[in-house]
Design goal:
Number of strands: 8
Number of domains: 3
Distance between the termini: 45 Å
Radius of gyration: 30 Å
Helix content: 55-70%
Strand content: 5-15%
CATH topology of the largest domain: Growth Hormone, Chain: A
CATH superfamily of the largest domain: MFS general substrate transporter like domains
Length: 698
């Protein structure tokens, strides 16, 4: 390196003696020996990894329609990536720095990319999507094939071969497709294991002690945009037709508002997998260990220098505390993992787990986070589907609403919680109060959501109005001359009576008219014997009468998400101050493991099962129950929002108990100090400044 460059580097290095001691290894020109470049690469990798992890949630209702899955099955699929993750995450704290961390991160990213490719494989091995039952290839004739036809014109022998082929080939293909998706989700969880823990520890080991918090803050800030980008990507991909790579010759007449519409769900997995694969390439060039960063960032120096003048001599600045805190953290790690074999680590882990769970504050904070995470997991997985059903919006619009409103609100809540803890110097008691207020406000905001919706509109043969007479069909006589197939689904709507029919055949329609517009064509059916005046009826489902409530609903949900996220940093600080120093590292690992096992794994299944109980009409495929066609909207809203309300109440109760325990501890400490002191001067110190260290410990 030229002398002027050497002098420039020596001038910014900070050494204990105040002199620069350049090491030839530190002067390598390779960009892969720069911790700043590692922070950039890791931010992009975690952004892409969270995007591919969250993309399935944005297209969950589309996958259900495409492959005939119930909400319980799709919820299990969404939660299955936690299975592989939870099975291996405990051993990450054991291996620590023994392995080549960048290379292992690269291998994990490659597995994640392969999981994304495997997730899109069912599209390519499945037959083209058939939204009608007329022919193996989708064509515009489905509108005419669904018309009312005399029973005598239907050939009798056709059902037998279709049933036999259904039982042999179609069912086997369905099981293979579902198995591939579950395998892909498991691989996704396995590949995600080393990415975040090894990346954070690598940054913390080789960054300057004063720069490490800033780098981690940048990492988390970029990473938190991943879920929002996943919903945004889902909103864009679901506007495209699922078989965009193999469109039928005659084209399709479906629009994205048609309930039979299936978007290009697989395309988002390919894009996300390509992004992860590109982000993984630099990790195979980073060294196992790089020279520790020896200088502070210049703008950080200026900030600390400016703030030092306002700090009193009796207080320690964060920059003075950080090296000691970092040393204590590494000492705690050294006491647990590095000198243990795998067998010894497995033996000592249950004892550390029980000792950590014996702390009441730690246990209650983890339970509150379990409740909050259960609420978030259910909302993230099924909120798009809820919006589609409750307010008659398209899947792409629902995803765009969540990606542009709810996710940014949650990010702002997390940031605001951290700022309040930092600026106000909140101690454990005030952190507990902040968590309690955030949980209470979030709970109160969810009350209006129970009333923001409409009941299910009338569907001929399925739902009944209060004055209807009991019977197998609402209109038993009008569709008797027609040969209506039981498994056909081509909904039409009578706009005057606001009644929906499963097919034009069930409405008794005998002809159809297509009106061409500038950008799309609208199909109407006429001569309908079941409709007053003979029609016309329009193709597609009836719009909800509450479509205008979707934006107020999303505003309340987003505000509640911000308030719930406000408790993230304060509750995390309560955990760090509630366990011993030597158990702190594993306590955080135990916390995330419990959140996965108790919240992220079961919650989507619980929400999916609750949604399935509100179904009023199931589609049948090969004699089995497939996707739900219609839900009881009032029941769906009450049970979905009710589950959210239940978890929010549990979180509020945990924070109330935490506050009660903290107050009791403060009273006991005050009593002990008062008893042990003699003299009014010592009592004054115990009742006054004695509380200050407790309040400012965080």
């Amino acid at each position: 390196m030229p002398d002027k460059d050497t002098k420039a580097m020596m001038s910014v290095e900070d050494t204990p003696g105040g002199k620069a001691c350049p090491n030839p290894q530190d002067l390598r020109p390779s960009v892969f020996y720069s911790i700043k470049f590692f922070v950039l690469c890791h931010s992009l990798l975690q952004l892409a990894q969270l995007m591919i992890s969250g993309y399935l949630k944005s297209s969950i209702s589309t996958v259900e329609k495409r492959f005939g899955l119930s909400s319980q099955t799709s919820g299990l699929l969404a939660a299955f990536n936690e299975v592989g993750n939870t099975a291996l995450i405990v051993f990450v704290s054991y291996f620590g720095s023994r392995v080549h961390r960048p290379r292992l991160i690269g291998y994990g990213a490659v597995i994640v990319a392969l999981a994304g490719l495997l997730m899109s494989l069912p599209h390519f091995i499945s037959e083209p999507y058939r939204y009608d039952h007329t022919s193996p290839v989708d064509m515009p004739q489905d509108y005419e094939a669904s018309l009312c036809q005399p029973t005598t014109l239907v050939p009798a022998p056709t059902p037998a071969p279709s049933n036999s082929s259904c039982s042999s080939n179609t069912e086997a293909q369905h099981l293979a497709v579902v198995g591939i998706m579950f395998m892909a989700q498991t691989l996704l969880g396995v590949g995600s294991v080393p990415i975040q823990p090894f990346g954070i520890s690598y940054i913390d080991d080789f960054a300057h002690n004063s720069n490490s918090p800033l780098y981690l803050g940048i990492l988390f800030a970029v990473t938190m945009m991943g879920p929002g980008m996943a919903y945004g990507l889902g909103g864009l991909m679901l506007r495209l037709y699922v078989d965009i790579d193999r469109m039928p010759e005659g084209g399709i007449r479906l629009t994205s508002k048609d309930p039979r519409w299936v978007g290009a769900w697989w395309l988002g997995f390919l894009i996300s997998a390509a992004a992860v694969a590109l982000a993984a390439i630099p990790y195979f060039f980073f060294p196992k260990e790089m020279p520790k960063e020896k200088h502070e960032l210049r703008f950080r120096r200026r900030v600390l220098a400016a703030s030092a003048s306002t700090v009193s001599k009796g207080e320690d600045s964060p920059s003075e505390k950080s090296p000691g805190a970092s040393q204590e953290k590494h000492d705690g790690l050294a006491q647990i993992a590095p000198d243990l074999t795998v067998i010894q680590f497995i033996k000592v882990f249950p004892r550390v787990l029980l000792r950590t769970l014996s702390h009441p504050i730690f246990l209650l904070v983890v339970l509150s986070q379990v409740c909050t995470s259960s609420m978030v997991a259910g909302m993230a997985t099924f909120l798009p589907k809820f919006l589609e059903r409750q307010f008659s919006v398209t899947a792409s619009y629902a995803n765009l609403l969540i990606g542009s409103l709810t996710i940014p609100s949650a990010i702002m809540g997390i940031v605001l919680g951290g700022v309040l803890v930092k600026r106000l110097h909140l101690g454990p008691m005030r952190c507990g109060i902040l968590c309690l207020l955030g949980a209470l406000s979030c709970l109160l905001l969810s009350l209006p959501l129970f009333f923001m919706g409409c009941p299910t509109h009338q569907i001929a043969g399925i739902t009944r109005q209060p004055g209807d007479l009991p019977g197998p069909e609402l209109f038993p006589a009008c569709s008797e001359p027609c040969s209506c197939p039981l498994d056909d689904f081509n909904p039409v709507c009578d706009p005057r009576a606001h009644v929906e029919y499963l097919t034009p055949c069930q409405a008794g329609c005998t002809s159809q008219v297509a009106q061409e517009a500038l950008d799309k064509s609208q199909v109407f059916y006429t001569n309908c014997s079941c409709v007053a005046g003979g029609g016309p009826v329009s193709a597609g489902s009836c719009d909800s009468a509450c479509s205008h409530l979707v934006l107020p609903f999303m505003f309340l949900v987003s505000l509640g998400a911000a308030l719930a996220s406000l408790t993230h940093t304060p509750s995390f600080m309560l955990i760090l101050r509630g366990v011993k120093k030597e158990d702190k590292t594993l306590a955080v690992g135990i916390q995330f493991m419990l959140l996965r096992v108790l919240a992220w794994m079961p919650s989507p299944v619980i929400h999916g099962s609750a949604i399935d109980t509100t179904c009023v009409h199931w589609a049948q495929s090969c004699g089995r129950r497939a996707v739900c066609r219609y839900y009881d909207h009032d029941l769906l809203r009450n049970r979905f929002i009710g589950l959210q309300f239940f978890f929010k109440t549990g979180s509020l109760a945990c924070f109330a108990l935490i506050l009660a325990i903290l107050r009791q501890q403060v009273k006991e400490e005050g009593t002990q100090v008062t008893v042990s002191t003699s003299g009014p001067q010592q009592q004054l110190l115990a009742s006054g400044p004695g509380k200050k260290p407790e309040e400012s410990s965080v």
